[in-house]
């Protein structure tokens, strides 16, 4: 029997009411993964502002230099702002989801063939994903055969003839994965040319935004070097002025140096991946990827030369087929003087 106490008791405990209100205002915060990502983004923004703020608060010479040579400070602040903009732009960028590419290719094929009985409406599949079906009476999983979508046929051509559809179909979102694609468990989507899921960005790094991520690393490294140079210049000129200010700046400089080492290593590592047309996932999990197990460690099967690798990384996005054994053997052949003269490495 309901008592007066039960009637007067609030339906939601009092401590949870502010949190529930916050979740209603910002639904994205209800997801623990996105909430932690938002906190990391806020933390990174605060750290940047602290480093710049301490510099302008403690360094009186910088203020005087700004009055005499405003271009110097203007360039620094411009790089500072561009780096933050690039960070947030990369964090919300599309890494190249397999589902989006599948929908786009199937729609283009429908328009190209102009078949009136076809339908490009997506059917709801596993885990809320969509499976594109061109045939009006076909629903569910895409299968190879006469009723297969154009995407299924295209993906099948990228794999060796002996492979089956089960070897490249994602077991989580039920979508045919082209070579070099992988399902990201953090985003719950398959990503083209998956590199890694960046915790600090809260986003996957894949084919579409890897170049953007590399430029962010360059800008962040440049900001750290410039900021460290200004910190060192101030400490050399005012090391004995105010001890507590010097202590704060030395502590920040040590932390900045550690971050700079990490950024430089990360920038060099991703530059190497670009020049050899590899991804972090392929390099780290090479023995777990079926089409890379038989390839020697020193051979990069998808590399087309340094110049073409850079061009494809920056300007060209497409699906890559698995190289044939003959092509892998050709790539494994050592370079000779004639190869260097004919720019085989490029």
TrEMBL record:
<feature type="transmembrane region" description="Helical">
    <location>
        <begin position="70"/>
        <end position="89"/>
    </location>
</feature>
<keyword id="KW-1133">Transmembrane helix</keyword>
<comment type="similarity">
    <text>Belongs to the DHHC palmitoyltransferase family.</text>
</comment>
<keyword id="KW-0812">Transmembrane</keyword>
<keyword id="KW-0012">Acyltransferase</keyword>
<dbReference type="InterPro" id="IPR001594">
    <property type="entry name" value="Palmitoyltrfase_DHHC"/>
</dbReference>
<dbReference type="GO" id="GO:0005783">
    <property type="term" value="C:endoplasmic reticulum"/>
</dbReference>
<dbReference type="Pfam" id="PF01529">
    <property type="entry name" value="DHHC"/>
</dbReference>
<feature type="transmembrane region" description="Helical">
    <location>
        <begin position="39"/>
        <end position="58"/>
    </location>
</feature>
<protein>
    <recommendedName>
        <fullName>S-acyltransferase</fullName>
        <ecNumber>2.3.1.225</ecNumber>
    </recommendedName>
</protein>
<feature type="transmembrane region" description="Helical">
    <location>
        <begin position="213"/>
        <end position="232"/>
    </location>
</feature>
<feature type="transmembrane region" description="Helical">
    <location>
        <begin position="247"/>
        <end position="275"/>
    </location>
</feature>
<dbReference type="GO" id="GO:0005794">
    <property type="term" value="C:Golgi apparatus"/>
</dbReference>
<keyword id="KW-0564">Palmitate</keyword>
<feature type="domain" description="Palmitoyltransferase DHHC">
    <location>
        <begin position="169"/>
        <end position="285"/>
    </location>
</feature>
<dbReference type="GO" id="GO:0019706">
    <property type="term" value="F:protein-cysteine S-palmitoyltransferase activity"/>
</dbReference>
<keyword id="KW-0449">Lipoprotein</keyword>
<dbReference type="InterPro" id="IPR039859">
    <property type="entry name" value="PFA4/ZDH16/20/ERF2-like"/>
</dbReference>
<keyword id="KW-0472">Membrane</keyword>
<dbReference type="GO" id="GO:0006612">
    <property type="term" value="P:protein targeting to membrane"/>
</dbReference>
<keyword id="KW-0808">Transferase</keyword>
């Amino acid at each position: 029997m309901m008592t007066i106490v039960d009637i007067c008791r609030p339906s939601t405990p009092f401590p949870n009411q502010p949190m529930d209100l916050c979740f209603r205002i910002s639904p994205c915060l209800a997801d623990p993964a996105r909430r932690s990502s938002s906190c990391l983004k806020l933390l990174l923004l605060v750290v940047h502002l602290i480093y710049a703020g301490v510099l302008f608060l403690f360094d009186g010479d910088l203020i005087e230099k700004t009055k005499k040579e405003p271009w110097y400070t203007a360039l620094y602040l411009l790089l500072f702002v561009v780096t933050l903009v690039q960070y947030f732009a990369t964090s919300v960028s599309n890494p190249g989801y397999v589902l989006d590419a599948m929908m786009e290719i199937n729609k283009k094929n429908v328009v190209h063939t102009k078949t009136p009985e076809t339908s490009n409406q997506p059917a709801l599949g596993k885990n809320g994903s969509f499976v594109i079906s061109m045939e009006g009476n076909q629903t569910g999983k895409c299968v190879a055969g006469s009723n297969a979508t154009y995407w299924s046929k295209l993906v099948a051509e990228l794999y060796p003839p002996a492979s089956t559809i089960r070897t490249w179909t994602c077991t989580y979102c039920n979508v045919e994965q082209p070579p070099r694609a992988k399902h990201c468990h953090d985003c719950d989507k398959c990503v083209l040319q998956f590199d890694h899921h960046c915790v600090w960005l809260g986003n996957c790094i894949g084919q579409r935004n890897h170049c953007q991520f590399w430029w962010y690393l360059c800008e962040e490294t440049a900001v750290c070097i410039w900021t460290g140079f200004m910190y060192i210049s101030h400490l050399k000129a005012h090391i004995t002025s105010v001890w507590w200010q010097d202590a704060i700046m030395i502590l920040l400089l040590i932390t900045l140096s550690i971050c700079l080492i990490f950024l430089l290593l990360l920038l060099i590592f991703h530059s190497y991946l670009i020049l050899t047309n590899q991804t972090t996932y392929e390099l780290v999990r090479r023995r777990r990827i079926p089409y890379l197990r038989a390839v020697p460690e020193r051979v990069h099967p998808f590399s087309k030369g340094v110049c073409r690798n850079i061009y494809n990384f920056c300007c060209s996005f497409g699906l890559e087929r698995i190289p044939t054994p003959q092509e892998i053997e050709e790539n494994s052949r050592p370079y000779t003087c004639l190869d260097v003269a004919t720019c085989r490495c490029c």
